[in-house]
Amino acid sequence: MKISTLLIIAFMSFMMPYDIVQAQEPLQPGIALSFDDTYINEWYEANEVFREYGWKVTFYLSRFHRFSEEEIAKLHRLEADGHEIAAHGYHHIRGVDYIAENGVEAYLDYEIRPMMSVMEQNNFLPTTFAYPYGNRNDQLDTLLLERFQLLRGTTSGNPDVENFRGFYNGSNLVFGRGIDSHRDDYHIEYLLSLLEYAREKNKIVILFGHKTVAEFTDRNQTEYNTLFALFDYMKDNDMRFYTMEELSRMKN
Ligand SMILES: [Zn+2]
């Protein structure tokens, strides 16, 4: 490198305001992992297994009105451990389809308002929302961003990693990639290649599962072995966990 180039770089870094330097600091690479639906007892067991990794995840609860007092107490203990308790719909419906048939107010009355009130009655204040079935459109995004700080849609398939849509994108609409064992696109090597890319490029991989199990027997189950493989990779490579609420505070 020429001396003159070095001088220009030195001059630019001297002139750069402090906040711009801060903003350009690369992210610590990691995973924003969430689990959807109603599997509180299984998540609570998994928490005992994976706490040694310092895992911090987001639980997206649907059908909150059906939980027992014991399940709600477990959710509070998960929250006290640093996990996020967030919203996934009162009845777990396809919002776009429901609005097309019944309109916006009916959707809010059926799916969103009763969920918020039952969660608030139980001392949870969800700030992020995951779309049931990933069913969303621009209208729903606008409607729900009046109520939540961040929305999670879904993405699937195994594209070349540079085209993967599930890296954190700096916006309040992000896309998670499923990691359940029954999926056609389930491939642990592919998931690990996403982590490798994230490590090299300082990115956050957004992933989601459902019921945590030691061994899968049905749809919508995330196996412990998948989590061990991901978390071992993270541990070996100094990667960290992000909750969705943390992502919502990072957005540009
Ligand atoms: Zn769901």
Helix and strand topology:
Elements: H1 3-15, H2 18-23, E1 30-37, H3 40-50, E2 58-61, H4 69-80, E3 84-87, H5 95-102, H6 104-121, E4 128-130, H7 138-145, E5 150-155, E6 173-178, H8 188-201, E7 204-209, E8 211-213, E9 221-223, H9 224-236, E10 240-241, H10 244-250
Parallel strand pairs: 1-2, 1-7, 1-10, 2-3, 4-5, 5-6, 6-7, 8-9
Helix pairs in contact: 3-4, 5-6, 8-9
This protein binds zinc ion.
Protein architecture, described:
Helix content is 44%, strand content 18%. It is built from 10 helices and 10 strands. The chain is of the alpha/beta class and 252 residues long. The protein is globular. Helix 8 links the parallel strand 6 and strand 7 (204-209). The strands form 2 sheets. Strands 1, 2, 3, 4, 5, 6, 7 and 10 form an 8-stranded parallel β-sheet that branches. The chain has a two-stranded parallel sheet with strand order 8-9. The chain starts with a helix and ends with a helix. The longest helix has 18 residues, at 104-121. The chain has a single domain, classed as Glycoside hydrolase/deacetylase (TIM Barrel), CATH 3.20.20.370. The site of zinc ion has 6 residues, from strand 1. Zinc ion is lined by residues 36-37, 62, 88, 92, 132.
